[in-house]
Amino acid sequence: MEFINPKTDFGFKKIFASPQSKEVLMSFLNAMLYNGEPTIKDLEIIDPYTAPSITGLKDTYLDVKAKITGNKTVIIEMQVINVEAFTKRVIYNAAKTYATQLKPREGYSKLNPLIALTITDFILFENTEKFLSHFVFKEVEENFEYYREIELVFLELPKFHKRLEEVENLIQSWIYFIKNAPNLDQIPDKLASVPEIQTAFNIANRSNLNLDELEALEKREMFFEDQRGAVIKGMQEGRQEGRQEGRQEGLIEGQTALILRQIARRTGEIPPEIQTRIQQLSPQLLEDLGEILLDFTSQEDLIAWLESVSG
User: Which of 118, 68, 72, 113 is nearest to 93 (CA)?
Assistant: First the structure.
């Protein structure tokens, strides 16, 4: 057997937001949010997984979102690359999701609690060895909690080092699955003993994907590997310069070169004047272009996008 990678946006949503994923997601969230206790009794997956149309990858595969017990909303983001201002983006997404619950003229009493679960394939907090961190608003001096309306939970995969025989509980079982599923050729008995993880493996089995899904998966895996390579190259160039400015310039140059290669691969040779316009984009617009270019089918799409962000 061969399993898809849960660390890609495609794979994560396929496994945790498919029609048959309700019990899977409930078990995973109880592990990550409630220390494995069966606190969540029921949930509703919002914007569930649907088969891809290939041209709409950016819009099709977003974070998993669900309503859980207690009228709480949970949003989940799987992030493999430490992009610029990522920590700010987490807060922005949480605050935006919380605020947009209200319809026009509705009172604040209609707001329900929100939990943002962020899974990173990189180390986010250097000052702790904990792989699972949970944040709420607290008073600075006396440490008492504000109303628990917004919670931020982070799972840092590189900090989890346990081998299969060392896995002890539901939390560790799910983390092991996310980290190691693509490297396995069968379902380990130790993980199969958890019915929801057994189901997750069955959903993740590549042989169960249709041709469109396989094509979508391959495109996403290639995209993430290219992005990761660009970031590593940029960091190496930055270190060689020995200055923060050099590091940032290296990151931007690596990202720009990657994007130009990907566009050329999709739409053909890029005219020099279009290359220049792309090279002059801000880091944030480069990041936006890196995601949306998967939707381009021609250079007209690229030019239209450049026009829409200029001026």
Answer: 118
